[in-house]
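Predict structure. Chain length: 104.
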Amino acid sequence: MPFKPLHDRVLVKRLEQDEKTAGGIIIPDTAQEKPVEGKVLAVGPGLRAKDGKITPPDIKPGDRVLFGQHGGTEITVDGEELVIMRESDILGVLEGTASRKRAA
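Prediction complete.
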């Protein structure tokens, strides 16, 4: 990855959500919301405190995370649309491999 975040910033790739609801209704592209689940690609070294010490981030590359609908700044790196945000904008880490499907 040719992009390295600074300080407490995290680079995230949005994960696509299903185009169908649990009831089988197909959602058109124009009505779909942006995914709020993503995979962490890169993490900055951490936030520097007033005393000069760096607090390492709790997030690591490869983590699947949840973040706010409009959180972060969208950027394009090597033709790929990514989101860069502060670690504090991340709501939580998804543990396990199965993603939850949106209920109808």
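Summary: The domain at 9-16+34-94 is CATH 2.30.33.40 (10 Kd Chaperonin, Protein Cpn10; Chain O).
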